[in-house]
Queue: 3 jobs
Job 1
Amino acid sequence: MNRRPRLAPLLAAALASTACSAAPPDRAAGELPAVSRLAAANLYVANRNGNSVTVYAPGATKPLRTIVDGISLPVAVAFDAYQNLYVANAKAGTVTVYAPKSTSVSRTLSKGISNPRGVALDASGNAYVANEGQNTVTVYKAGTTDLTQVIEAGVFAPRALAFDATGKLYVLDESAVTVYSAKPARNLLLTISQGLTYPFAMAFDGANDLYVASTGNNTVVEYAPGTSTPLRTISDGVSEPDGLTLDASGNLYVANELTVTIYPPGGSQTSQTITQGLSAPFCLTVDSSGNLQVANYLASTVTQYAPKTEKLTRTISTGVNVPYALGFGP
């Protein structure tokens, strides 16, 4: 069942795909539990078909505010250390930046950008953009629109970016994850491909182990820091995984074709399976209280579940139109 079309056909139809998340400095773009873990942080939803980012207060189902200025097929969101919002716009070929709680563009990154798939910020506030259209990762000086570096070595059709706890850059593409040294050089250190078939999302746990959703062979693969050999392969309950995240306790959450499966720390067997309220779950995040948020591609909803359970506690539909990325911010 092709209910979540991939990038090439989407672009042909003027659509886009996403790296499913935002992340704080030097954490994974796919590592949603660490996404701006503010107390009572608001939920940000990037709506592909709505050309908007909608913001929801904790527990609310109606938007607190809606951002449309500069938005054109939003596919990824990120926040810097000052809580400025960055939005990757696939159709416009831009990354638009917004001051905290603002709905107006403060600056636009465009030089070197072509079909951006992901955006992430390093510890110094420099912005990194994954450009599927150029096979590059472009780097922009903190607080400016200045292009300072273009990373090309090992980059092919990048779809997600991440920083590990030591500041190394990880770039996920359609066949592998490439790892680059900590700034400023960003030299290619490692290519991770063993065990992967069409990787689609990645995250890190508290030990800095890398987890990759391998959509093509229905697995999630774990790698120890600095290695390219799988440490663990999870297949129980996994089916066409598009998103994954971990909570503060190390529980792993995987968005599958029809379900979300939960795995205990270090475990390879499903401890919980969520089905209620799901419709092609696409990406995930866990808030500071441990509540799971799920973006549902087909239903155009975001559903919330109590910590480590199948209990549905909130359904957001107002203002949601094909959600492609989630994040937490002011």
Note: The longest helix spans residues 7-12.
Job 2
Amino acid sequence: MKEKRNCPTVWSQNPVPESPLASFEKNGFYLLKNVCNLDVLRDLKVVASAPKIEKGSVAIFERDGLSLRSIFNVSSTHLKALKHVLKQEAEQFVRDILGSPVFLYQNHINLKEGLGRGDQFDWHSDFSYWYWLDGMPKPRAVSVVIPLDPHSPDNGGLQILAGSHKYVHCASWSAHKEWSDKNMLHDGRDNCPGISRPSEYPETFDIYEANLSVGDALVMDANALHMSGVNNSPNRRATLFLILASTELEFESPFSGQKERPHYISNKLKEPFFSNISK
């Protein structure tokens, strides 16, 4: 049976009942409406639609080798835009969750081509990989999911298992396959098979379907189980992911015993990220 995590979900305080922080603590995510700067989103949508990948960014393709799946390290040329995409209320919410200044641990734009060419992302917990592959000791990090196009069930929108963040999902690591940027978005279950066994959890979880509008930001605990389906709509869907972590995290060597991953997937420099919060 899966064990419960041994660290907080909200690191700064005991949330006031019925507050957004209390909802985040219970479910492992919270949807903030209309908290993004639309002019910045328009600029980033241009990046997602560009015919060529900019220098410094890293392209990940679908299994067919043709359809673009993700663009990592957008910050290499658009750090200023990323720093200003969230309004102050969203920045403060993230800081209240993590209880410290935050840094940009990872950033990427996920793309799903339409008409079934944009494949699914299987159920997974991001922290399971950050622990084993990057030496992140505790899930003191969040993913901020920022739609550049609307999310809906027909275009492979995000789904989250509410409450799943409370458990240790991957207590061991199968090292038969070394990490590479060719398999990182496709073959996670080969290394962390426990995620695919829901019978091992002491409770059942409700599935939350995130119907997101441009301007929204969904803040998700690093340990929450989530997935997104195939894009069966006729249009490509783009989503910006900002992975924000506490500057108080003390990273260790990868617990899998593998070599350190490259900077674009695992930034540990801890440079304070938010520009609107001075305290």
Note: DSSP finds six helices and eleven strands in the chain.
Job 3
Amino acid sequence: MRINSVVIGVAALVALAPAIALGASFRASDAITVGPQEVVRGDLYVSGGTVSVGAPVAGDLVVFGGTIAVTGRVSGDLAAAGGNIQVLGQIVDDVRIGGGNLTFGDRIGGDLLAAGGTVTILPGAVVDGDLYVAGGQVIIDGTVRGSVSMTGGRLSINGTVLGSVDARSADAPVIGAGARIVGEVVHHPVDRPMHRGDGTAGGVLSAIFFAIAATVTAVKMLAYLGAAALVVWLWRRPATAFLQEAYGSWWRSVGVGVVYVILVPLASVLLLVSMIGLFPGVLLGLGYAGALVAANVLGGILLGSLVTMLFARRTTLQVTWASALGGVILFRLVTLIPFLGWLGTTLLFLAAFGVIADRFRKMIM
């Protein structure tokens, strides 16, 4: 009876996780607009194809989407990932952001960590902390009060940098006539890595590490392929229903995945340190770990099923042996693509995790 009560308590805690997130708000849809007339008290999690946040946010803002515009004031941190992202409102603390085209037009009170194809700091924009950026083209027309650390293709500075500039790029930084840099400018040309297989100690160690890495990768791949095979063999219909739900309500599933990926570990830690005891916290942690593995497998199957549906010109998503096993392999290969590959596989994983969490919540409520 006591164990049953604990299990029910843990299940209820997981189901109510979004509600206990200290005032956090969650919104997910194909197109989302949080207008300037609204006031968000606490953290805000948003996921959608097109997202516009013009309202002041009293806490942190976490956004996933295709096109994102943030014009309101954020009193905490900003974390965002998407295609075309514009941050034109004030961010009081740090910004961690990744996307295709990134534009910043207001004040950032902390550090800015950005990765994208093109990263632009507009005239009048201010970064009070340090700038850590990776991109094909980085343009600084505003002010960075800290230092700049850049990795990528080309860095152009026409504004002000009160700290130093450290660039690891193929081309030397382009400093405009009106630029002001207080610290030192250091350029590290990007060279192709040297191949060390000449039988020296370095070459032997490199070969050993490569063999270990290749073995671990092969074992992980076989494990994921085995899991995908089990899914098709034993649970093809439920898996098909899961993935059809993820595909049919894509951005909602991604948003739910974001919320539960963040909040379930917090709930597990709260259980571990609370009066409830060790067992429920461990139980919730094990369930979370299992859901992470399942979402990785289902994310690969979802990718394979989407590719199969596209090339076969089907109108519905179906899980087959080929789409499952091929999708798992393709999922692992796509992760090797810098940034865009990581972003794509992360969205697939979050969509799968969101459906798993939502199904469990509906089951226990």
Note: The CA atoms of residues 221 and 329 lie 7 Å apart.
